[in-house]
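In response to reviewer comment 3 from the previous cycle, which asked for concrete evidence that the modeling workflow produces usable outputs, we include below a single protein chain processed end to end. The sequence was submitted unchanged, and the resulting structure tokens are shown without manual editing.
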Amino acid sequence: MDVIEENAAMLSNFEVYSLLTEIQADTTKKQKKTKNQSKGLQNLATITYEAAKYLENTPCKLQTPEIIADFLKALAPFNLTKPEKLQLLNQRPNSPVEIQLLVEESEERLTEDQIQQLLEIISTKLPTDQQDEEQNDDEEEMDATEETVANSVPE
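The workflow returned the following structure tokens.
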């Protein structure tokens, strides 16, 4: 395999997930057109499926370009490098220890208050699967409560 156009860039999980879903859509169209699939296309389909399946179970599937832009604007005052911002976006640390692992020399560069501010920004600006699950749980509880109330009302 030859590299046609070299472009070194770091991608967020959201960008990778978006790209993989596009590739999957394109390959399914191609598969419908041609029944005889080459080994290369089979391998590509397997890799894209496995990677997309993994990323579907991460909060990146809930992100949008607007959410990411808003998150990056909120990180501006902290003078973080691009790789550090990307790690915070992808990993979503929820403790000071995790931030120390992701931000180089965080003890010298960030105060305890700034670390707490970072954690607050991460928890408020980025969607998580837990928020989605909590909403689903709340809806299920409300449905169950309504059903119980409906069943207990005498006719």
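The CA atoms of residues 30 and 36 lie 10 Å apart. We consider this sufficient to address the reviewer's concern, and the full set will be provided in the supplementary archive.
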